[in-house]
Write a structure and sequence with these properties.
Elements: H1 2-15, E1 75-79, E2 82-84, E3 88-96, E4 105-109, E5 112-119, E6 124-130, E7 139-146, E8 149-160
Parallel strand pairs: 2-8
Antiparallel strand pairs: 1-3, 3-6, 4-7, 5-6, 7-8
Length: 177
């Protein structure tokens, strides 16, 4: 018994009181700080807390938010955000409230293939190849992989049909021999 007392004696100096059987050792449920009487009834430091009971059976009507503040919703912009059937181009994806350096993978869904990606300090460069037979007004979605999470960007790219209806021929020489 003396060993137990010797073990707990230094702890009482650190905490100010020992709680046992729902009381603080004084038998009245109060530990001696605050006007309302200690742990269970002290409301001096809790804004919105209306629990003044000296036991733990009363419900707490604390009006303070118990959840963490959510992260702001990120916003994304793709430049250019329109392309024509048969085009191959590099687009710049920028973001607000999102760390593009953390992106570990990018997937495109629709009539455009993603050929390459490159991270830069403030943007993610994406090389697209639009299908030759992409329909007018069709959209392309992106899925950004960030570790075990993902960010879905619906309709980030809008496609247009080729003027001749068949897409580009792939000959990009521009009249050069």
């Amino acid at each position: 018994m003396n060993r137990t007392l010797a073990f707990f004696a230094p702890l009482t100096l650190l905490s100010g009181c020992i709680i046992y059987d729902g009381t603080c050792g004084r038998g009245d449920g109060k530990c001696g700080w605050g006007d309302e009487g200690g742990i269970n009834g002290d409301t001096s430091g809790l804004s919105g807390d209306t629990d003044t009971a000296t036991d733990d059976t009363a419900s707490d009507t604390d009006t303070a938010a118990d959840t963490a503040i959510p992260d702001p919703d990120p916003s994304f912009a793709l430049t250019p955000n329109e392309a024509t059937a048969g085009d191959t181009f590099i687009a710049s994806l920028t973001a607000t409230d999102f760390d593009l350096d953390a992106v570990t993978g990018v997937n495109a869904y629709g009539s455009a293939s993603l050929l390459a990606t490159a991270n830069r300090s403030d943007e993610l460069l994406l090389t697209f190849k639009v299908d030759n037979h992409a329909a007018e007004g069709e959209t392309v979605d992106l899925l950004l992989e960030v570790g075990a999470d993902a960010e879905y960007l619906p309709a980030i790219l809008t496609l247009h049909a080729a003027a001749d209806g068949g897409g580009s021929s792939g000959d990009d020489t521009g009249g050069c021999p």
